[in-house]
Amino acid sequence: MAVSRLTETTIANIKEIYQLDWSTNDFLVSDEQNFLRIHDLPMHIDGYSIGICSRGTAKMEVNLNVYEGGANSMIITTPHQVLRVIQTSEDFLCRFIVFSKRFLAANYINPHILDTFQFSNVNAIPVVHLDVSEANQLKELFIYIWRRFQEVSHPFRKEITGNLLVVLLHDFEAIYQKHFQVVQKKLSRKEELNRQFHNLLFRHFKQERGVRFYADQMFVTPKYLTETVKYVTGKSAGEWIDAAVAVEAQALLKDPSLTIQQVGNLLNFPDQSTFGKFFKKEVGLSPSDYRHGANLQV
């Protein structure tokens, strides 16, 4: 199946794309590759991905916010985020690990450990610029995990890898907290409110498209929320909601197994006509025209 048609990019898909034959459908680890070479496609990955960049630069959009990474940057994505790769330099290389909660559970590791990490939060910063010592520490772990996971004849290969992954996650969480706390201290009340709004938005936008829902969750008025978000970001709360729905709709329309009506239903529109009007207003094309154009790019 062509990757550009996928709404959900699975670990199995990534394994096939990068020809990582020794990987499993719940865990993979790579040597240095251009992991972000699939460009301009809104996607979900059905696992947690962590990459450490060796060289080059990359620009990506995560939950509608644009981030840039380079050498010694850590890139993290989670299953509930929408990722779109905008651009990578020709020399971009990174090591990466992608895993699911199923992999942890199968190796007797409590998968809920992920919920305790700040970097797995829906509103976490997905690109962290590390200093040289931090980057080297994590690169050594990546390389060691890579080597051990290639020992396909080892009877406890997966168990060893699972426990090494937990070490990596804890080391990275410690580094992430140090960097995140610096950012967090700089947030004003309005910036914090905006952060909370986006945290709620990417959990509920498929069901809730009204500003009042988010305002009620945050105990502020819709007017105050709209003005605050626009002050911080330049876009109103309503514009962010519509943009999130439009990005998700574009990803869903690339899945040929879904009808346009089913896409509208998944996004909680009352009927196909309402969905079509919304989509054309946001994207500039009807859903059918957009789907036809996307298919031509496959």
UniProtKB/TrEMBL annotation:
Pfam families: HTH_18
MF annotations from Gene Ontology: DNA-binding transcription factor activity; sequence-specific DNA binding
Keyword Transcription regulation attached: yes
Transmembrane segments annotated in the record for this chain: none
InterPro entries per record: Homeodomain-like_sf, HTH-like, HTH_AraC
Keyword Ligase: no
Keywords: DNA-binding, Transcription, Transcription regulation
Domain called HTH araC/xylS-type: residue spans: 195-293
Signal peptide segment: none
Name used for this protein in its record: Helix-turn-helix domain-containing protein
Organism annotation: Paraflavisolibacter caeni
